[in-house]
Write a structure and sequence with these properties.
heterodimer, A: 2 domains, globular, B: 5-stranded parallel sheet, 5 helices, 5 strands, about 45% helix
Chain lengths: ~525, ~140
Amino acid sequence: MARNSESGIPIEPVYGPDALAGWDPATQLGEAGSYPFTRGVYPSMYTGRPWTMRQYAGFGTAAESNARYKQLIANGTMGLSVAFDLPTQMGHDSDAPIASGEVGKVGVAIDSIDDMRILFGGIPLDRVSTSMTINAPAALLLLLYQLVAEEQGVSADRLTGTIQNDVLKEYIARGTYIFPPKPSLRLIADIFKYCKAEMPKWNTISISGYHMAEAGASPAQEIAFTLANGIEYVRTAVAAGMDVDDFAPRLSFFFVARTTILEEVAKFRAARRIWARVMREEFGAQNPKSLMLRFHAQTAGVQLTAQQPEVNLVRVAVQGLAAVLGGTQSLHTNSFDEAIALPTDKSARLALRTQQVLAYETDVTATVDPFAGSYVIEKMTGDIEAATVGLMAKVEELGGAVNAIEHGFQKGEIERSAYRIAQETDSGERVVVGVNRYQLDEEEPYEPLRVDPSIEAQQAERICKLRAWRDFSRVDEALTRLKKAAGGTDNVLYPMKDALAAGATIGEVCDALRDMWGTYSPTDAF
Amino acid sequence: MHDQIRIIVAKPGLDGHDRGAKVVARALRDAGMEVIYTGLHQTPEQIVSTAIQEDAGFVGLSVLSGAHMTVFPKVIALLRERDAADIEVFGGGIIPEADIAPLKELGVAEIFTPGTPTGHIVEWLRDRVDGMVPS
């Protein structure tokens, strides 16, 4: 009997040559590093060097996070990945009433250039690449990073890293949006233009399916809605007057890696093939780099269990393997205790060690795209590609990603899928080890890492001091220019940088934009 | 009796993870209960006002951001302040085991941690209603 994949596509018990009838390796597979990039974006993939091990971290104050980053670097991590707390992600200062209880909890609290200076103190920004999970206020954090780098004597054109900057998926899944879609897209186009001129090595966006998957999306839904969002961003930038080859090489993607290895490998390969085709055929991109779907992967947090948490170490190893076999450019492996709380130093180190075992003890890095030509993988790659293209066509029928979001289409599809998974788990049809099978009578107690609750007061005090030392007339003048740019067509990043340099807080800059652009409030049914 | 259970499912604070809240809301609705979902980014004041306006019997709070020790007590205190302490508060999310007892002491009726089958929450609500003295 055929079992269904996570995308609902049958997986046959045995595949043979018939599975590949009509399959043409020359056009569908090609060479690694060449169109359609099914086998990977680079010719040598991991045979030269492994993927970038990039562990997402950040909590509490800038000083605490700075210490964790230095420790990760000492342990062999190759790129930083900054987690910001929710007030920062939502454009509120730590002393705003809505921030109560959230300061420093899921990431580091950043209110102004003062905090950013501490966050990267003693870390040579010309030698690390930094990814920042920041979306609605992405421009602000990017500019703060640039300002701190310049203070270190590192010019902007040398900076490497990524801002997530993917607001469309916030409306679909993650929920940390501020402005409505239209001004949000305009802000993103401003960032593309700014980086083209000032920070040419920076990845301007990380178009993310990860959070949709965490919200319940199937693999096909994950890549379909993500690529559809990508298409919307490309259209926005082209409409803003940019040439596709001027920004497309700096687009990057972010996907989940689940324990279902075969389908995940097929998913990554299919995503590369679809994106290359869309960029070439729909947008006429000429630069081969514009056609490459480069991606970061993170192991699926939602598959981790609070029960028998050590079992998560095994899940993460399997998930990480799926990402590597799928050709990821960088990887975050979750810590085993993340279904309970923030990772401790030890669990964070174990997560990194998992990647090091994959990279240096296994042989999966010895040869490019090891599953190529496998009956099942090539068949599943084609199957998931077809399902994805079908879903992308539905988004187009609704008028593209933004219109589909306004119809609640993607969110509705993902929530139905989440509910089905919950029902399957409740009924035992879907086995979750330690949760609905092989449970322990009594769980061992686990003491998770806790964030110091006094951080909120500490941050409020820091803001107070900042307001005292800064020259408010400079802040005010820059914020006035920022509002003028936001109401017109000038790039908002230039006055925004002046405001931040003068000591404007995240909340103040976002409030100025809220005044001009309003805020997004969804019609959220279930 | 059971089909009259009216529940507010709420997302307090800035946390945008609504998968759990939505799954629970659907499961309760499928079990015949009347469910009102508040949407994201609600203040405790907004949640309590909704609960009172809607004449709810229960408020279910979902927090995955670690803000539960701030937000849950605020909702309980506001319900008492507004003479609505008969509205029971339950919750779920990423809540460490060690925080459950203190939350219950503050007046939270029950905490459902990750992995709880939705059926357990339905049963718990029905038992709770059966145990209530009709006014």
